[in-house]
């Protein structure tokens, strides 16, 4: 009678676990992705250098995009006089905000600068219009650097950096010279390199950028109907 008694005790449990009553998780893929994102991952030196390039590209492209937007607006509002104070992309809000997130500092240098603070001797390769190479390095354990050419890619820039008397009205150039007496940044043509972007980044910012760029992201499911 004892085995029969045990069988009778198990009957309610078996009834409570019928397949049609088991609740299945509907977001198992999302949970798996989230679990993978929380795994401790070892970041190798080559990963940090790759992240430095990603971060440098992101920061310099943001600077160029924001500068074009701001200058177009200011030129329309008040010409070169209104636009001139804003030709400092590293200080513009979106660029500055991203630099803080990346723990980076952004600068521009040229061998034909407008601002003496941006004057530097560039190599022949850095002045080559065909050179679009990104240079990344790790000069210190906690410091990474990024560099790429700064090319005049928008006709809008010719309003201040083109040929005087042709692209730049003489009156406008007088305003430029008044603010920058040592100006050398004219005579450029579309597609010509004007200098280089230089970015320095802290290791923690580079590592965080690598982590965010390599996070797994679930693709949105298409509706069934």
TrEMBL record:
Stretches of the chain forming a coiled coil according to its record: none
InterPro entries tied to this protein: Tll0287-like_dom (IPR021796)
Domain Tll0287-like, first and last residues per copy: 102-200
Location of region: Disordered: 109-136
Pfam families associated with the record: Tll0287-like (PF11845)
Domain of life: Bacteria
Residue spans of biased composition, Polar residues class: 109-131
Descriptive protein name: Tll0287-like domain-containing protein
Organism: Hymenobacter swuensis DY53
Source species taxonomy: Bacteria, Pseudomonadati, Bacteroidota, Cytophagia, Cytophagales
């Amino acid at each position: 009678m004892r085995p029969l008694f045990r069988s009778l005790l198990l009957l309610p449990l078996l009834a409570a676990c019928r397949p049609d009553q088991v609740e299945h998780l509907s977001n198992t893929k999302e949970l798996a992705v989230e679990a993978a994102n929380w795994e401790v991952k070892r970041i190798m030196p080559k990963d940090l250098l790759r992240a430095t390039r990603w971060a440098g590209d992101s920061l310099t492209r943001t600077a160029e995009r924001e500068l074009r937007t701001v200058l177009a607006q200011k030129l329309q509002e008040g010409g070169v006089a209104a636009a001139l104070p804003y030709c400092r992309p590293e200080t513009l809000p979106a660029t500055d905000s991203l630099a803080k997130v990346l723990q980076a500092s952004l600068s521009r240098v040229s061998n034909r600068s407008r601002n003496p603070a941006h004057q530097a001797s560039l190599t022949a390769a850095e002045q080559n219009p065909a050179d679009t190479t990104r240079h990344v390095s790790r000069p210190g354990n906690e410091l990474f650097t990024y560099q790429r050419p700064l090319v005049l890619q928008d006709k809008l820039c010719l309003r201040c950096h083109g040929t005087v008397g042709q692209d730049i009205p003489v009156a406008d150039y007088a305003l430029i010279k008044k603010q920058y007496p040592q100006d050398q940044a004219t005579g450029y043509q579309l597609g010509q390199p004007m200098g280089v972007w230089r970015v320095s980044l802290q290791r923690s910012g580079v590592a965080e950028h690598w982590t965010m760029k390599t996070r797994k992201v679930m693709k949105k499911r298409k509706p069934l109907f």
